[in-house]
Specification:
The chain is α+β, with helices and mostly antiparallel strands and 333 residues long. Helix 4 crosses helix 5, helix 10 packs across helix 12 (290-309) and helix 12 (290-309) packs antiparallel against helix 13 (313-331). The protein is globular. The strands form four sheets. It has a five-stranded mixed β-sheet with strand order 2-1-7-9-8. It has helices at residues 2-12, 18-21, 33-42, 50-59, 77-84, 103-111, 157-161, 191-203, 218-223, 260-269, 273-277, 290-309, 313-331, and strands at residues 67-70, 93-96, 166-168, 174-177, 180-183, 188-190, 209-212, 229-232, 235-238, 249-252, 256-259.
């Protein structure tokens, strides 16, 4: 724009006084209104609260003082906003797989102050109750959650800084932590892979550890944790021993090991699916960030199949209806 205005002014030469010459080219700036008007219709985020609601939902999926391992930008930055601006579940430690390849994020995790869990501001699922009969399915019996006093890594800053960016995976390499065995897949391991393994080694039995479902099958394929993971809503909890079918823990086609009661309590008592399922005649605002909307679709749609297979047709129909409304936004590009 500046070059065009200057060119117009120069072309006028002495025919227009110098102080007015370049103003004659200023109308070219009106061209900037074209993308403004076009994007207002096609890319408006008016009334969209999905980023905020997703952040709250996934943080509230985690038990007090838990560690939540996320994948990248879309499933981490909104969570930082929710914690630091809204004050939501600041007791949860967020470890980002992409950023754990950097020195600064590993140092941040080691140095971070971890605020105490505040049940008065948490979801009802985590609050104490005096009447045990009123506790919804999936709610844990309230205990005085033990606040950890040690950092999430046993290594010092120097030790974290010395982790290699890449290293060849030794043959039959793994880490044994009590009854849990991590088996590393792939020919190479990144710094992030090693850090994730260290988080599990240093915190299993001390803090609840979860992988966000947005990380896909990373914990299965890279760390060999499939037998130890239980799906609970949008997250998968790392268990200290191989999972077996007991109580509300069942095997499902969509999620492998699946906690029926906890997932039901999260889907219908904690989450905000209305933000994901709202009507969008032109579809979701942009395809690159649709993975978060897709996560809601997969969790509700997959849970409907699992709940129906386990005989809970009422909850399955509710989940199906939400998933169907979300699907419309994903298919209207």
């Amino acid at each position: 724009f500046a070059a065009t205005i200057r060119s117009i002014g120069d072309s006028l030469g002495d025919r227009v006084p110098a102080q007015r010459r370049y103003w004659m080219g200023a109308p070219i700036l009106l061209v900037a209104l074209l993308p403004l008007l076009g994007n207002k219709a096609s890319a408006s985020r008016a009334h969209e609260t999905l980023a905020r609601d997703f952040a709250i939902d996934i943080l509230e999926s985690v038990e007090p003082y838990g560690i939540l391992i996320t994948a990248g930008d879309n499933d981490t930055f909104p969570l930082w906003f929710a914690q630091e601006v809204l004050g939501v579940r600041r007791d949860v430690v967020l470890a980002n797989l992409s950023l754990m390849n950097t020195d600064w994020h590993l140092r941040q995790l080691l140095r971070r102050d971890h605020p105490s869990f505040d049940p008065s501001t948490a979801a009802a699922l985590w609050r104490p109750r005096s009447d045990a009969d009123s506790v919804p399915l999936g709610a844990p019996a309230f205990t005085n959650y033990v606040e950890p006093t040690t950092p999430v890594f046993s290594l010092s800053i120097g030790g974290l800084d010395s982790l290699p960016e890449y290293s060849r995976t030794p043959t039959n390499a793994g880490i044994q932590v009590d009854s849990l065995t991590m088996r590393f897949g792939g020919e190479y391991m990144t710094r992030s892979d090693i850090a994730a393994a260290l988080l599990i080694r240093d915190n299993l039995g001390k803090r609840p550890i979860y992988f966000a479902w947005s990380a896909g099958n990373y914990p299965d394929n890279t760390l060999g944790l499939g037998p130890y993971l239980v799906s609970q809503g949008m997250v998968r909890r790392v268990m200290p021993a191989p999972v077996t079918e007991t109580g509300s823990i069942r095997m499902s086609a969509s999620f492998k090991w699946f906690d029926v009661d906890r997932t039901r309590a999260l889907l219908f008592g904690v989450y905000h699916p209305e933000a994901a399922a709202r009507e969008r005649p032109t579809g979701w605002v942009d395809e690159p960030s649709s993975s978060i909307l897709g996560l809601y679709y997969l969790v509700y749609g997959g849970s409907a199949d699992a709940l129906r297979a386990m005989g809970d047709s009422v909850s399955a129909e509710k989940a199906d209806a939400i998933a169907d409304r979300i699907r419309r936004s994903l298919t209207n590009y």
